[in-house]
Amino acid sequence: MLELRHLRTLIALRDTGSLVEAAERVHLTQSALSHQIKDLESRLGMPLFTRKTKPVSFTRAGERLLMLAEQVLPQLRLAERDLARLAGHEHGRLNMAIECHSCFQWLMPTIDHFRDHWPEIEIDIPSGQNFDLLPGLTREALDLVITDNPEPLPGVHYEPLFRYEGLLAVANQHALAGRPWVEPADLSAETLIVYPVDQSRLDVFTQFLDPVGIRPQEIRSAELTVMMMQLVASGRGVCALPNWALTEYLDRDYVKALPLGREGVWSTLYAAIREDNRALPWMEDFVRTARDTSFAVLSGIKPALPRS
Questions:
Q1: What burial class does residue 267 get, using C-beta atoms within 10 Å of its C-beta: 0-12 exposed, 13-18 middle, 19+ buried?
Q2: Domain of 215, in residue numbers
Q3: Which residues, including other chains, have CB under 8 Å from residue 30's CB and lie 6 or more apart?
Q4: 91, 139, 144, 291: which has the fewest Cβ within 10 Å?
Q5: Does 256 share its domain with 281?
Q6: Spatial contact of 56 and 18, defined as CB atoms under 8 Å apart
Q7: Looking at residue 85, what is its pLDDT?
Q8: Is the pLDDT reported for residue 60 higher than 90?
Q9: How far is CA 10 from CA 31, 235, 306, in A?
Q10: What's the mean pLDDT when you consider all of the chain?
Q11: Does 145 share its domain with 277?
Q12: What pLDDT digit, counting tens, does each position of 197-232 carry?
């Protein structure tokens, strides 16, 4: 009667707060997910959550099943890890690199959690690479790259982790601060603060400014997010960052953030791995841990859609 897929669906519904996003997270259509829940409720003879509430409000029966899911699913995950280790898959190397300056907020707890369960896997994040990261995968100089700019490379697979929205941070007193969103032309008279990377890797250029041929008045770079926020708050420029990277500054009312355009600019973050490593149990577990940790610690992200 009660299956593991039901427990995973209820957890997704609780974490996302909506049927639409829960369906994306468990890779179902919204109608298929609704049918699954209605079928389960019919078997149990009672509702599991209150319809038309946002976020979703669970009934006592739903809360009880969530409690069960929180007990069973981690134990199942632990058993799968133990079985993989017993099968002799416990040794390996995970050299990774990051094309995302603000990723450490979720990546470090991911690594900590992974090390607890796979202590025999050697993990390293080498610094100062003097080569292109993604081609480094094909040469086996790296085993995993976190990127939002997938390139078609032979033997490289891109596992989607989550989607995020790029937002423009401005000072609280900035003339744009009261706008519902910004248009590309609004940045033509601004100093745009960016990370010191090639502009072809920045969504604010590739998805927002470049398509309409608009350039900021000035471009300034800063290494750290906190430095960028200090410059923005003091009125010395604006910057575009992932929504999760701005959460703590918005909560403290340090800056204001606006969508890039009426529809916003959304991107997907990927874990790039070699095809020959893709099926390794510990590699699969690292990707799953990265995805689960991201949803646990970040605000404003959405489930990733399968890459076509």
A1: middle
A2: 163-265
A3: 19, 20, 23
A4: 139
A5: no
A6: yes
A7: 64
A8: yes
A9: 15, 45, 21
A10: 88
A11: yes
A12: 888 889 999 999 999 999 999 999 998 899 999 999
Query: Does residue 125 sit in the same domain as residue 251?
Result: no
Half-sphere exposure (Cβ direction) of 15: Cα atoms closer than 13 Å: 26
Query: Does residue 57 sit in the same domain as residue 17?
Result: yes
List the one residue out of 205, 198, 200 whose CA is nearest residue 239: 205
Kindly state the tokens that stand for 269.
């973050």
What secondary structure does DSSP assign to 114-169, as a single string? HHHH-TTEEEE------S-HHHHHHTTS-SEEEESS----TTEEEEEEEEEEEEEE
Residues 52 and 118 in one domain: no
pLDDT-derived band at 58, boundaries 50, 70, 90: very high
Confidence of residue 128 (pLDDT cuts 50, 70, 90): low
Q: Quote the tokens at residue 154.
A: 């032979």
Q: How far apart are CA 295 and CA 303, in angstroms?
A: 9
Q: Is the pLDDT of residue 130 over 70?
A: no
19-29 residues labelled b (16+ CB within 10 A) or e (exposed): bebbbbbbebe
C-beta separation of 256 from 174 below 8 A = yes
